[in-house]
Amino acid sequence: MLAVDVRDLRVRYGRLEAVKGITLEIPPGEVFGFIGPNGAGKSSTIRVLATLQPKFEGKAKIMDLDIRSKPHQVREKIGYVPDFFGVYEDLTAREYLHFFAAAYRLPISRRKAVVDDVLQLTDLTNKIDSPVDSLSRGMKQRLSLARVLLHDPAVLLLDEPASGLDPRARIEMRELLKALKEMGKTILISSHILHELAQLCTRIGIIEAGRMVTQGSVADIYRQLGVLKIVHVQVAHQTPELIASLKGLAGITHVDDQADRISIRFEDGAIEVEDIHDFIHAQGARIRMFQPEVMDMETAFMKLTEGQTA
Amino acid sequence: MNVSEMTFGLPLLTKDMIEQAAQRRTYVLRVIYAAVLYGAALWIYADISGGGAQAGVTNLGRGQGMFQMLVKVQLFAILVLLPAISCGAITSEKERDTLGLLLLTQLGTRTIILEKLASRLVTMATYQLMSLPLFAVVYGLGGVELVEILMAIWFLMLSSLVVGAISIYFSSWHSTTAGAFMSTYALMPFLGCFGGIWLSAFSQRGTGQSLGELNIIPFLIVMAVMSIPAVAVTIGAIASAQQQLLIRAFVPPRNVLLEMFKKLDAFFEELNQQTTRGVVLVRDHDTGPRFAPVAWRETRKKSLGTVRYLFRFLVLLEVPLAISISWTVLDMRTQSFDGPTAFFLAVLWPIAVVAIAVHTTNVLASERSRQTLDVLLVAPLSPADLVGQKLAGVRRLIGMLSVPFTTLVVFQAVWTLYVLRGMIALEWNSPGGKTFLHEVLGMAFAMIVYPRVIQWIAFHLILRLKNQTQAVLSTLAVVITICGLPYLIVYLISIGCGIVLHDPRMEWLTWFSPIRVLFHRQIVDVAMQSPPRLPLPSKDGMQDRLFLGLGLHVSLFLAAWVLLRHRALRDFSGWIGRTEPTGGDA
Q1: Interface ipTM
Q2: Can you give the pTM of this predicted structure?
Q3: B585, A69: Cβ pair inside 8 Å?
Q4: What whole-number distance in Å separates Cα of residue B111 and Cα of residue B117?
């Protein structure tokens, strides 16, 4: 059984086709990162899964429950955090959580214990009687996470939960998500903060202009990119001949002669980093710095997408 | 001048004109305005030409009546429509957080205010231009001099300036469009009275004189002097708006109603402390959200949902009502069969309609503005459960409003049965008895059903319109249409077909209007005392059909209540954007 099963999903807003046939399979317990530029179709996809987008084509299931035919059952299985703070500011944190505990039909006898648990998990116990209005942005977002944990959903749908948070709040949010991952929750998270997704997610999917460009583990995606690695080199007495000979070396795709270094991009598997080191040395150059680097997520993202929206 | 120069010479004016041109509302309002203006003109024309049966040379020289009507309709339109167009001019920038950006540009506060005002006056001018063909007809009919028409145009221009400037001032002062609306419209009755007096003063100056006969210089001086108050008010409002624009640019929105109730709370608690040393008969006991959390929030956390604040509202309505009723009972000179019920109904119903419309539309509008709707919709509550709980506060409000209405029904019954029984012998089978029974049944029915119908109309509109102000105004427009349309249709049919208004065939149509149920006796009285403007059967026929008509009305509005409720629950998810089961396996 898949936790999230989406096949050929299409979403239209009038003439605009925001999602153009996305297929997605997320097994239980996986943390799936959804990456894409603004307007790529991430939120539309998540809204379909959250039962908030009635008009769509294709198949979408959560825990084997079809969203079209069984949306009520699906709502009991999911926890949805939108990309804005959906909190009632006229309530206290306690009232807010009890409000949703009642909305999710938690037995009255269990509510207090559950509310205490989620507050502890989200580190908001000392704010229990504070008006929601008085909480910081990061606290409000943690309160939103506490809300979705009340009914112990199997799947969490988090639409850019870290957007607008300061670095500390972002780190706290990441630690919280790691804790949820360890609890075995299936998490579908969209974000612009790519390196954080790389650390957290077991798999990522890159979406652009309504289409899934690629999906797989972080390592898979690097592999799929073809040009994955880069090495920064500083040599004493650099000569134009050295640059020319590097460019001619099989497996090297690009040599960038920068002011303080030479940046060499090469295909993983076509040539090893040690071979490049040996080659430079063989050219008679004296190496001051040799720094291999895995292409970061942002570079991968920029390479895979062209900044288009649907 | 090329296009780019035209576009960027007055950037704010251009932007606002483009925005207004892109809004469907602009065209809808214009069509409604044209329909009302030309409908009214047709009405007056039919009146002066004797119900359409005569025309031609006999109408010559009779344009004065139509001219007066045109000016009054235009003045009314300025008072009603211009605030609706102008109140959002600055507040919409505040609500969209774009005012700060405007203030950072090279545009000064005066430029911002003047361009905003100009954009609204241009729109209003396009409305008024629609009356030019009618002025031509008036002039063609005769009886109106060119001087009068020019004066009327000048008067209307000045009125637009005054109302526009005041609307812009309140738009600059308030942080929300709703607040600006309320303040501006609160002022409109006074402006209407002032405008009426001013209009009559204007009218007296030029009547009957042709352009050639006029001593132009003294006339212009008099006109200029008479225009001074309007110009002064306009300049004052613009200057104040300019000043407030900076001072109140970033003032956060206030819940004035809640603040007022809180002040009243403090006052009553202090009073209670001093008089009873703090005795509390009914304590607020909040058990928290246990079984119906949405209803709990609607009735515990909303200012118009809590018992305490509803009680305050009730006191505000009931105390003047009780005093007036007591005064009526004690003052023997006012004793008539009617009693003062009609007056109270005429005051209470508009209050009830506005309160219900505002509260009903607020239940979804507040969720949208706080961005909490999605979070709520994801909870596993059925549409019926969600809607039912969201409207819990409105149901309480309707329950509270039923108290003054019940007071009126009981008062009317007691008044008719006991106080006046000595004056008029009341037999159940007599016309008086039937009328009494019909009235009491009608009022009781109205009290129970109309608020629910209004609630569902408002709910339908807020589902579709998204914006609360639009939804409230649309609800009021629908209610006014339901009340007035049957009478308008009857009148138009009577003009078109030459049917006498007394004809019983026409009477049944009026039973579609709540006005007929609420003000039956007054309509009959007015119709019997004045020339036949309203449909009225013979007295015997009327008594026979009284209960048949009421039955028709009751069936119609009960069906409307059930249908509106059913459709609201059925269409809720579709309009709000929530997936509901499509297969049979849910």
Answers
A1: 0.78
A2: 0.76
A3: yes
A4: 10
